[in-house]
Design a protein that fits this description.
Layout (H helix, E strand, L loop, with lengths): L1 H6 L4 H12 L3 H6 L8 H8 L10 H9 L6 H11 L7 E5 L5 H6 L10 E5 L2 H14 L4 E4 L10 E5 L9 H6 L7 E7 L1 E2 L4 E6 L4 E8 H10 L2 E9 L17 E8 L4
Parallel strand pairs: 1-2, 1-4, 2-3, 4-5, 6-8
Antiparallel strand pairs: 5-10, 7-8, 9-10
Length: 265
């Protein structure tokens, strides 16, 4: 029902039906199920229970990212713009939630990275195992994998593309605990809102997982407190997060932001 409300309930007659249903006492939770707002990620995860479907560890989800390793998406070009002037000085990249390394395979086609580039992907154990196997098959020199976030210490660039909203701990807090903070942090394809932050369920064809919709102002403030300045931000028009009966602060497009570590004068 929640999918119908989002995808088919936008016509004039359908909107009237949805409006009437939304006014029926107790009807909304019954109609939307887990496609609603939650106070936290653990609460959202509990709502799907046995239907969690192993999230991003499914073979179907891995196969989807393998297919995404050949062509850049529209929101990648904003990332290329902000990275282009620094690419030659980037020797170590930490790809947070980088799946099988799909960004590594096509970022090199658009940016002039250093010849000794070391691109390290951090992800779930099953995904990392698949990434290592694919990298060996493709003879991907410079692509490495890890299960340790500590390996992000001192890197030139930390990328969180399509991954930050799944983290239990805010990314700025994780970075603040590293012995040496990354020089640049690039966040792409993440849902942000101008309203209060909330958790919900991302129900995609190949996975069903809890995710966090953050407040954009709070995110920028958290990175500023961690010692970073905002370099730029952009809209990710190809992605949106729609929840039935959620109209106060709709996520009509995902977001991207880039930060640079400030040096003490």
């Amino acid at each position: 029902m929640s999918r119908w409300i989002v995808t088919r309930g936008q016509g004039r007659r359908s909107k009237k039906i949805v409006s009437v249903l939304g006014c029926v006492p107790g009807a909304v939770p019954f109609l939307v199920g887990y496609k609603r707002q939650f106070a936290s990620l653990p609460e959202a995860r509990r709502s799907i229970g046995e239907y969690s479907d192993n999230g991003h560890s499914t073979q179907a989800a891995i196969d989807t990212h393998v297919a995404l390793s050949t062509v850049a998406r529209p929101s990648d070009f904003a990332a290329f713009y902000y990275l282009s002037r620094h690419a030659a000085s980037l020797h170590r990249v930490f790809d947070l939630g980088g799946n099988v390394g799909n960004l590594f395979y096509y970022y090199k086609n658009y940016l002039n990275f250093a010849s000794d580039l070391e691109w390290r992907v951090w992800d779930l154990p099953r995904v990392v195992a698949a990434g290592r196997r694919i990298a060996a098959e493709r003879q991907a020199t410079g692509l490495l994998f890890t299960n340790e976030f500590a390996d992000a210490s001192g890197v030139d660039l930390l990328i969180a593309s399509g991954s930050m909203h799944y983290l239990d701990t805010p990314l700025a807090s994780m970075i603040a605990l590293l012995p040496v903070k990354p020089r640049f942090v690039l966040i792409n394809r993440t849902p942000l809102t101008d309203g209060p932050a909330f958790a919900t369920i991302q129900d995609a064809p190949t996975y069903r997982v809890a995710c966090m919709v953050g407040n954009k102002t709070a995110l920028i403030g958290a990175f500023k407190a961690a010692g970073y300045r905002l370099v730029g931000d952009w809209e990710v028009a190809e992605l949106a997060l729609q929840l039935p009966f959620h109209t106060s602060h709709p996520v009509l497009s995902y977001s991207g932001v880039m930060f640079e570590l400030m040096t003490e004068s």
